[in-house]
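## tool: complex_structure
## caller: assistant
## args:
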Amino acid sequence: MANTNTVMIEKYRNNFLKEVEANVEEGEWVKMCMQCGVCSGSCPLGPHWDHPPQELFMMIRAGKREAVLSSSSMWMCTSCYNCVVRCPRGLPITHIMHGLASYANKLGLAPKNQPTKKFSKIFWDNITKTGRANELKMGLSLYFMDGMGSGVKNAMANQKLGMAMMKTKRMNPMEITGGHGIKDTGGLQAILKKAREIEDAKLKKQ
Amino acid sequence: MAADKKIGAYICKGCGLGERLDTKQLASVAQKDAKANVVREHDFLCSEDGIKLIQNDIDKEGVNHVAICACSRRAKTDAFTFENVAVSRGNLREGVIWVRPDTDEAQETTQEMADDYVRMAVSEVKFLTLPGGNPEAKTERSLLVVGGGISGMTAAVEAAKAGYQVHIVEKTAALGGNGAKLHKRVPDHAPFAAPADTGVEALIKAIQGNKKITVHLNSTLTKTDGAPGKFAVDITTESGKTDTKVFGAIIQASGFTPYDANKLPELGYGKSKNVVTQLELEQLARDAKGGAIKRPGDGKEVKSVAFVQCAGQRSEQEGHLPYCSGHCCTTAIKQAMYFKDSNPAIDTNVIYSDLRTPGNGGEDFYRSGQDKGVTFTKGKVSAVEDSGGDLRVKFKDLILNEDTEELADLVVLATGMVANSGVDIENMVKLDGKDAAADAAATQVQKDKSVLNLTYRQGPDLPHLKHGFNDSHFICFPYETRRTGIYTTGPVRRPMDIAQAIEDATGAALKAIQAIENAGLGRAAHPRSGDLSFPSFRREGCTQCKRCTVECPFGAIDEDEQRYPVFNESRCRRCGTCMGACPVRVISFENYSMDSVGQQLKNVDMPDEFSEKPRILVLACENDAYPALDMAGMTRLEYSPFARIIPVRCLGSVNLAWITDALNSGYDGIMLMGCQKGENYQCHFVKGSEMAHYRMSKVDDTLKSLSLEPERVETHEIAITDIHRVPELINKMAETIGRIGMSPFKF
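## result:
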């Protein structure tokens, strides 16, 4: 198959479907969708999706590569697993949604400023630093995600919650200095780096 | 009444009858009013002791007509069967005590109801004769199968296995039919994953090696005469050589013709050679011999295929087929696999509006297709255009809700099945009698088109039901047609795939065997199976009006040279529609006649006009309405004590004379309860209920001449499930009478 970025889009051909099967987690399930629409009807956030899962699957089969990968839809998934429970064909829909999002992100096609995407990035950076989640920094990064002004506003609005968390020792103000971590942070970084290399190599091979 | 009739009336006291009714009075009614010769009461009539009591009277007292006044005629039929005696039943349980409240006020009318049913049972049995059957009945134990496709061959093999001689008449030069044109078939057993061998060759081999099966190739039926047990059939070869053979029953497996795809120019058929039908693709697949399938236009190897489902089917458009042919979705999956199995890189897109995969493994097969990478698109194709040999398929994607198109090397149209059901006898060409040459030509065209060329008065082929498919009573009795002893099977009956056709043909073979055996015993095959009676008529009274021959739903009655009716008893279903039709009352059965019903309604006690006790006559079809009434009793639903219910074989057997008699003898209301009529008929005799409704629409004149209100006669369509509705209808009639007043015709 040609380079993933320059695949010729052909309608209702298997090209994009095969690309999804090769690169997206659980992507080989996409062809098994029978278009009943139970997933779309079950999704609690369904009305807010541009394209509910059923439609995304059809778009993949119709060869709409750009539209699928640049869609914000799969970023809307909250992992409630309602669709997975109900799918009569047993498709791991939640996993496919995350797989699609991840693949789109890798290719740089994911929509810019998509809040879920930003959150994911912040969380990733936060947790990979020391191997443990730093609640304080996590909260602050989220508050100031959209700049200083809104950050202060967010922080003030959640002041009471923050104080309560500190009082009950759910959050430690000292974490601001760096916080706790795992024993071998260097080891974790090495693991992640290696994993990234393997993934990139896989992508290049396509 | 003949001198040798000795009537025994037996009154049961079981099931609460003894407590609720004055059985002594019932006995006295049977003796004094109804004039039964022997009258006995018993505590538990259907017990061994009770049966012995009756049998003893039959053996020792010479009782030969037995009126059993106990439960419904539908209950305890095994117990109350006695050899060589006529039996009638008075329905005191389901018809009286179970539909009336157990109160002191109701006691009087409940007892009157029971008294009447005893009178009716005894007066009925007086006019019953035990059917003697036809001592000359005999049958030819061989079977004719018309059509040598999968359905016909299966029917032949199955009948031969059961020990019957079979002749197959096939129009073409080879057995196999449309099945032989297939590359492979949809699998019929687990894991339902890949196309399977058609099995046609094995079937042909089985037939060729079977001594019980004779095959006539290049042959057609040029004349079919006779009746079940003795069909005389002219089998004519292409060269014109005719052979007359006798058969006991006929299975028509004339199959289907593919819908003419030339009627679909918008889908590119006829404009591009690369647009083919599903059946044509089978040939391409056979030509490929396991290799790459090449398209017909330029011989290029096919790399992308679009399957257009419901091409000219399930469409209201003029000239299209309105129905679903049932097999095309699974066929498309199978054909997409032809490509995918040879080369998974070939793109296959099935554009469907509703994917229907009937049968055992349909869903598994669909899943297997998806697994192999066949794309399924819910959409509606609007056009297929030639684009330099390739094809541009324009369609609306119904999931993505957008108009779109795709390019394909080959387009396969799922066109439907058109039944080979011969001449539509209800819309035959009318011969004008002026131009002899034109008439002869029209007759010849019809003769060529006909599958059976029956000599029946009602036309050369089986009647059609819907969309040109042959009539079969699919609700209760599949295979049964309106011509007794002739069974349809396979796609001539309704669209079906191979798996269904094989099952269908096996069933048809068994039905045909039943018809052969019943004809030999002079019995009705269906639905009054085992009935030995058949209609006879009083020749001197007949006015040759032909109503019986015209109205018989089964074409059982022909005419002789003097234009008197000729009853073909083995074609008869014993519904009595002829009896209901006869204006001069000359047609009757030994065990069902103008008198056997007429005397019942006349022997009901008729209180006078000022008694406030009206009488409602209910003539209820024994197939649906009467069981519904019985079940109303079983569920203890109450209805008016003024109703008197008489079961009839079919509403079609109701003669207007009964209605006139009933009105004249003072009934205040008359209700006719039959089955659903019309297009989705439920009538076991197809036209009986319809005929009754038609006849009753003319009863107004009779009512007018008697100065009676039209509300007094009602005709209803009742289903067996109308358990709650029937009592309501009766009660409503009682209310109506309360409103309009009693009939002035009381004696």
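## assistant note: Chain A has two domains: 4-112, 115-200. Residues 1-9 of chain A have pLDDT under 50 and may be disordered. Handing back to user.
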